[in-house]
């Protein structure tokens, strides 16, 4: 075993050791971050087209590291998924977002967004009783099931039976299901035949260049037709310009999200409406 170990060590790229050490350090720091309140949530508006009226918000996690400052969720969420801490982090996200939705309802009344959208990773979805946790959090906060949207990715749901069972159970509770980053996975259309989905979040990659490239417009337009045909709501993600918004509206999109309508913020400006003109 020693010889094998040495063999392997000889083939190791020293930067790989650094990488493994870095991953361990990150895992330990995530634990501390959760225990000492270094995470917070920001909320990005999802708007109706063409009015720009905010219908819901998506909760997005932020990590302000005491030494390194802002760490992107694109970097630490995959690490938390690998070491399993995403289960606890995700529960914190769910509780905090649902509680915030109820607070806004109390302080803003009808001006509060109708729904709160929460990202749920595959690891969380396949926990033994994830639907039970959601039921408990809804009861604990007083948020209605119909006011919660759970965002899952295609790869998460396609991962297997347990995830599909969980999605069905959530749907039974009255929670809305959104398929995130739609179109980027391998089985988008197959999945729509078997999983109860309410919302399709059409990935930013289909929105980018929509005004410049006929090919992008054709695909974005095909996706809205699938969505409409199945009676789903399509949300165009990553809309950055008024031109993109106008083009999306023209080809039939009625919901959008992106910096053009509002960046993620701790307290979004719910009065602000960015109506599209055309
Ligand atoms: P996502 O769920 O696809 O979230 C959308 C990402 O696009 C967010 O990045 C958002 O800030 C960004 N975005 C929104 N509009 C625009 C735009 O117009 N232009 C550009 N360039 N970007 C835009 P963020 O917050 O950095 O999150 C990255 C990813 O991390 C998320 O992608 C999601 O997969 C994951 N994530 C974030 N928060 C959570 C969470 O609470 N739980 C889990 N499981 N994953 C999370
Ligand atoms: Ca999302
Ligand atoms: Ca997305
Ligand atoms: Ca994404």
TrEMBL record:
Signal sequence region: none
Superkingdom in the source lineage: Bacteria
Domain EAL: residue ranges: 23-278
Designated name of the protein: Diguanylate cyclase/phosphodiesterase
Annotated source species: Paractinoplanes durhamensis
Residues of the full protein shown: 464 to 741 of 741
């Amino acid at each position: 075993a020693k010889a094998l170990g040495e063999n392997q060590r000889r083939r190791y790229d020293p930067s790989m050791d650094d990488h493994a050490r870095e991953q361990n350090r990150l895992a330990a720091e995530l634990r501390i971050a959760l225990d000492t309140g270094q995470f917070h949530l920001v909320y990005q508006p999802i708007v109706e087209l063409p009015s720009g009226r905010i219908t819901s918000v998506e909760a997005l996690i932020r990590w302000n590291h005491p030494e390194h400052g802002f760490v992107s969720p694109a970097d630490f969420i995959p690490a938390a998924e690998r070491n399993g801490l995403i289960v606890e982090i995700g529960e914190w996200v769910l509780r905090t977002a649902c509680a915030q939705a109820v607070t806004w309802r109390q302080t803003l009344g009808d001006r509060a967004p109708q729904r709160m959208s929460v990202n749920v990773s595959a690891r969380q979805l396949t926990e033994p009783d994830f639907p039970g946790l959601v039921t408990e959090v809804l009861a604990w906060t007083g948020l209605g099931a119909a006011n919660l949207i759970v965002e899952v990715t295609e790869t998460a749901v396609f991962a297997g039976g347990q995830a599909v069972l969980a999605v069905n159970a959530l749907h039974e509770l009255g929670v809305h299901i959104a398929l995130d980053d739609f179109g980027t996975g391998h089985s988008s259309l197959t999945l729509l035949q078997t999983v109860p989905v309410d919302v399709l979040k059409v990935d930013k990659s289909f929105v980018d260049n929509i005004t410049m490239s006929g090919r992008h417009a054709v695909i974005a337009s095909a996706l809205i037709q699938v969505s409409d045909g199945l009676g789903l709501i399509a949300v165009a993600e990553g809309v950055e310009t008024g031109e993109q918004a106008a083009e999306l509206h023209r080809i039939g999109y009625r919901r959008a999200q992106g910096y053009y309508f509002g960046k993620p913020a701790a307290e979004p400006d719910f009065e602000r409406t960015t109506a599209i003109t055309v």
